[in-house]
Backbone:
């Protein structure tokens, strides 16, 4: 389905991003990974994509809080792949505190990685996609791009911004073969969420599994976590011909959270 396409997935050395990278590779796309982690583990992940799916996989460790490193990453993708057909902006960080206690440097870091990096990769990818008259931009937003929760000022602001940027990008490319859409996951049991589960367990003096059940039940009517693989398959659908007239929208995969 995606043979011959080149994909860049940010924040893809684990969790949701890796699941999306695997889904694209499974459909035949060459993939560039990006993210932090143990160098040997990242190399094993990169190599496994090539072995398991018969595609070409590269890795770029750009720090997405730094625009110059983002630009270098995009140039690296161009040098190794000849361009980016599919851009998935997935990298994200979290910090929680009440607004009056929120450290300004933490605000800046969350906005830089969760929102500004999406702008920088998009502005650099769109010119190539216009030349090809084909492209898929998929931004990992969040249920928090649609609704708010306490103590998440920067994250909620950034994810709302991601959805707004997605809509603008879609309108500006509407007469081309480019689409821009956002995926809004609910609770996915990634490392980021695992830390919140651990904090809840410690605070309440309860087990990790009880804390996990409480966390997901607070928001998901389904009382189940979304899996990374489900997000990966959603991204794959957005790359398909069936989604060629879907642009500027968001797809909620959240166990019913935002239906309430």
Residues:
């Amino acid at each position: 389905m995606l043979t011959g396409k080149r994909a860049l997935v940010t924040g893809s050395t684990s969790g949701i991003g890796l699941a999306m990278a695997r889904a694209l590779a499974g459909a035949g796309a060459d993939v560039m990974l990006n993210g932090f982690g143990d160098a040997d583990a990242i190399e094993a992940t990169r190599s496994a994509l090539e072995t398991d799916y018969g595609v070409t996989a590269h890795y770029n460790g750009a720090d997405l809080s730094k625009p110059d490193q983002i630009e270098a990453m995009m140039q690296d993708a161009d040098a190794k792949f000849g361009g980016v057909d599919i851009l998935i902006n997935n990298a994200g960080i979290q910090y929680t505190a009440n607004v009056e206690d929120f450290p300004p440097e933490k605000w800046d870091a969350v906005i830089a990685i969760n929102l500004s990096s999406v702008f920088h990769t998009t502005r650099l990818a769109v010119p190539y996609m216009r030349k090809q008259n084909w492209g898929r931009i998929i931004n990992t937003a969040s249920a928090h791009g649609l609704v708010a929760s306490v103590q998440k000022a920067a994250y909620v602001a950034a994810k709302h911004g991601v959805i707004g940027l997605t809509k603008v990008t879609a309108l500006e490319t509407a007469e081309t073969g480019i689409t821009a859409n956002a995926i809004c996951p609910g609770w996915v049991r990634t490392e980021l969420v695992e830390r919140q589960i651990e904090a809840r367990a410690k605070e309440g003096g309860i087990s990790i599994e009880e804390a996990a059940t409480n966390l997901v039940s607070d928001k998901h009517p389904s009382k189940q976590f979304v899996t990374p693989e489900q997000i990966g398959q959603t991204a794959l659908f957005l790359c398909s011909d069936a989604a060629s007239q879907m642009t500027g929208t968001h797809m909620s995969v959240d166990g019913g959270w935002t239906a309430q």
Observations:
- Residues 104-132 form the longest helix (29 residues).
